[in-house]
Amino acid sequence: MRRSSTRRSSRMADEIMRELGRVIVRETQDPRLEFLTITGVRLNKDFSIAEILYTHYQGQSKELDQSLEKAKGFFRTALGKNLKLRYVPELRFVWDSFVQEMVYDGKP
Questions:
Q1: Can you give the pTM of this predicted structure?
Q2: Residue-wise over 38-74: b if at least 16 C-beta within 10 A, else e?
Q3: Which range (9-13, 27-31, 72-76, 103-107) has the least confidence?
């Protein structure tokens, strides 16, 4: 995926991150997504794909990945309605290992 680095893509990524966080907190009823944290959004050059970086306090798990995959359509619909986008990008959820590496840098 070729990432975009324009001001427009940065603003759009921030809006998607903010709105997705709001939807997860207020509208999602899946208890597995309760403590999910969206840490960033990266868009490709034509805004057709959005990589959503996330973490969870319990770490990465298959259950969490499955629930995100299951809720992907709900998230896209909510983003389209709330942000009034003509085209909502495909959402790809990617575990953000940066936070774990910062916390667990090998020191006890």
A1: 0.82
A2: beebbbbeebebbbbbbbbeeeeeeebeebbeebeee
A3: 103-107
Assigned token pair, 97: 């290992």
Note the pLDDT tens digit of each residue in 68-90.
Answer: 999 999 999 999 999 988 889 99
14-19, long-range: CB < 8 A, 24+ apart = 14/41, 15/83, 16/41, 16/43, 16/50, 16/52, 16/79, 16/83, 16/89, 17/41, 17/52, 19/78, 19/79, 19/82, 19/83
Residue type, 5: S
Ordered structural domains, the chain, with CATH: 7-103 (3.30.300.20)
Q: Tokens 């909502």 appear where? A: 88
Average pLDDT over residues 33-54: 91
Query: CA 78, CA 20: separation in Å to the nearest integer?
Result: 8
The two three-digit tokens of residue 44, written as one number: 């490709």
